[in-house]
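hiii so my PI (J.) wants the whole complex modelled not just the main chain, which honestly fair. so below is everything: two entries, each one labled with what it is. i double checked the lines twice but i was tired so who knows lol
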Amino acid sequence: MKKALSIAAAAALALTALAGCSGGQRGGTVNTDGSTSMADVMGALTEAFKAEEPDITVNYSGTGSGSGISGVLDGTCDIGLSSRELKAEEVSEGAVAHVVALDGVAVVVNPKNPVSDLTTEQIADIFTGKITNWSELGGADSAIAVYGREDGSGTRTAFEEIVGVEGECAYLNEYGSTGDVIGNVASNENAIGYASLSAVDGSVTAAKVNGVAPSEATVKDGSYTIQRPFVMVTKEGVTLSESAQAFLDFAMSPEAAEYISAAGAVYPN
Amino acid sequence: MRLLFTLCGLLAVGFVLLITVYLVISGIPAIREIGLGKFLLGRTWAAGQDEYGILPLILTSVYGTAGAVVIGVPVGFFTAVFLAKAAPKKLASLLRPAVSLLAGIPSVVYGLVGMRVLVPALRNSLHLPAGDSLLAAILVLAVMILPSIISLSETALEAVPREYEEASLALGATELETYLRVSAPAAKSGIAAAVVLGIGRAIGEAMAIMMVAGNVANMPALTRSVRFLTTGISIELNYSQDGSLQRQALFSVGLVLFLFITLINAFLNLVLKRDKES
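here's the output for the full assembly
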C-alpha cells in the first residue's frame, strides 16, 4: 500500500515536472521562462494576475535571457523573458519584444565602503583594471575586488554595453546569479559588483553614478544612465493561448504599473 | 521474466551509449569550427569575443584534482590505517558512520560552508582582495574525496591476511612498520583504486567548487580565481544562446571532460583487473 502510494506520488511529481515548460495551448497555464533578473517583477505580476484570474496559473522558471528567448522560439514556453534588448539574429528568427519594465543596473559596493559616488569613467576604469585600489578613489588602502556575472548574462551584457567596457572587464570573480553577486559584495568590504536595481537590498550600497542615485524616478527620467529594458518575448506568427495573451495584456496595462514598481523596477509608459 | 532483466540491462547500456553519442555529436561542431589545437591549447576563454581556448580550464581541473589528491590521499590513507588497524573498537564504530556521513553530505553543502567559512578565512589570512581561489577549491575537494579514499582503503587493509602482520610483528617489527611496510603493500591495488576513485570524484565535481573558485577563466595559480572544466559548463550554459558557438563550445568542454573521466575509469578497471589476476 505504502509502495503504491509512493509510486503514485512519484508519478504525479514526474508529470508536474514534465508539464513545467511543455508549452502549448492548454487554457489555464502560462509558462514563462528566462531572465533571472526578472524574478521579482515576475513574482509581483503573477501574484497580482492571480488575484484577477484565479483560474490561470503562471509558471516562471529563471533560466537566463538566452534560454528564455530560445525557449519561446522553439515553442517550449509561451512567453520568453529577457533582461536585455533582443539581438538582431533573434529578431530575424521571429522574436517580438514587449517592454514591460525598465530596470536600473546598480553598481553595488559594501556598506562599509566610504566610496559610494562614482563617475562612469571611474566605473569603467575599475572594471577594466586601470584603478585597482580603493585609495585612488578616496577609500581605504585595499585592493578592489571586482565581481561580475558570467559571459552571456543579461545584466553583464547590459552593464558592459552601457558603461562602454564590452569584453574589456578584468573580473576577479564571476558569479552565476544576481543573488550571488549581492551576497558576495555584502560579505567582502573590498568588493564592487553590479546587479539589477530591483534586486538590491539593504545588505549592499548602490553607488551614485555621476552624482545620481539609482531610483525609480531617476531611471524613468533617464538621468540614471545605467539602465536596461525588461522584455517579454513572443514569436511572430504564433498565436498565444488565451491565458498567455491575457497575462501579456495585463503586464503591459497601466494596472501593472504599481506591481512593477513594488518589485523595484520602473513602468516604462 | 528473463526478457525483463535483459531489457533493464540494455536500458543502462543504452543510456551510456545515448550520452556518448549525444556528447560526440554536439561536441564536435565547435571543435571543428574553432580548430582542435586552438580549442585545447588556447589560453583565452571569452565568449563575448568568440575566443574559446580551454587550456586554462583543463589545467585548472588537473591542478585542482592533483592538489586535492596530494592533501586528501595521505589524510585518507592514514585515517584508513587507523580505522582498520589501530583504533579501539568503540572509537572506530563511532568514526566509521561519521565517515559515511561525510560521503552523504550533498556537494552544495560543502560549497556553502566553503563559501561562508573557508573563503573569508583565506581572504583575511592571506590578505587577498577576495578569497575565492584555486586553493579554496583544492581544500574543499580534498575533504570531499576523503570518504571514498577512507572506506575503500580500509576495506583493502582489512582484507590483508592477519598472518602477514603477525609474522611481521613476530620478527620484531613495530606496529607502524608492519602497517606501512607489510599491510599497505599487500593492499596496494585496493588503495590505488581508492585514489583513482577520488580523482574521478574530484574532476567531476561542479557545484561545490563553483561556489568557492571565483569562476574567472584565468591560467591557474593558487590564490587566483579559476574556472574548472565542470564549472565552465555550468556557469555559462544557462545564458548562452541556443545554437550559438558559445553553447556548442560548452558541449565540446563536456566532451573533453567526458574523455578525461572515461580515461580515469579505464585506468581504474585496469588496476582492479590486475588485482584479480594476481
